[in-house]
Amino acid sequence: xxxxxxxxxxxxxxxxxxxxxxxxxxxxxxxxxxxxxxxxxxxxxxxxxxxxxxxxxxxxxxxxxxxxxxxxxxxxxxxxxxxxxxxxxxxxxxxxxxxxxxxxxxxxxxxxxxxxxxxxxxxxxxxxxxxxxxxxxxxxxxxxxxxxxxxxxxxxxxxxxxxxxxxxxxxxxxxxxxxxxxxxxxxxxxxxxxxxxxxxxxxxxxxxxxxxxxxxxxxxxxxxxxxxxxxxxxxxxxxxxxxxxxxxxxxxxxxxxxxxxxxxxxxxxxxxxxxxxxxxxxxxxxxxxxxxxxxxxxxxxxxxxxxxxxxxxxxxxxxxxxxxxxxxxxxxxxxxxxxxxxxxxxxxxxxxxx
Length: 354
Prior knowledge:
globular, PurM-like_N, alpha+beta, 354 residues, PurM-like_C_dom, 9 helices, CATH 3.30.1330.10
């Protein structure tokens, strides 16, 4: 008998990597490889049903007279307020954007609050007001909620969970397993803004220009995209784990590879400088107001033009293409002509940023 036997993980699908972690560590919640293993080998077997096969950001459900999408997300960002947003705005926009990535129109949210004893009432009121304004901007209603208070020192201020419901358009087939060789990869704007903005405040870092979070609802941008190109193959909002994680998930689900052009990936100068200073890869840094779209090459120019015509897509760029690759790798061509593997992060370079 080994000292790890008392873990009592009973599923036969339990992999060796989980046995290497007899306790949950912070990286298990970072959106990277350890998060995927936790979902795949703990939660997915326990909750197995026909609705969660792809483990997408939202799940489509067929009702008698309507198709809907359902999503849920929890937010534990620290600090609660940062340049360009707050945990309240994140809680609304994060779930709204998850719904939008399936091509659905978000309608309703629920909100659950876990509040630490000692949080200033002024801060809580500000969070609630931020959520109300964000919901109005996104065109959704917060229709139900719950509040719990935990002892001082047990809640880090405030945690929020939001769940959302949206209406799916008929015949919509946007999913992360729909990318095909020859497709084009488009990002809606500069990457890494949110993660670096939060980290700069948390660590007291000062740069020549204040870096703002990109926190925003993407519903209007998605609608403009679908009006221009109804048959977008896949979309993903690159939050935890950044662009690298999202593209690896798409490649793995679709059974393809993805090749990026490093020089085509838009990164703001101050964000790039901050990442170099902190030793971070912008592709691994979370975003909260950007999306990745996978589309047939014949539709790419039309979709790009529609995105650039929208305020949230004015910096959109074609950054790569889907290729045949049985290994399902994401690679990037560097400025000197070599290629590097854009791997899945183990945990998260910047924890607690969403």
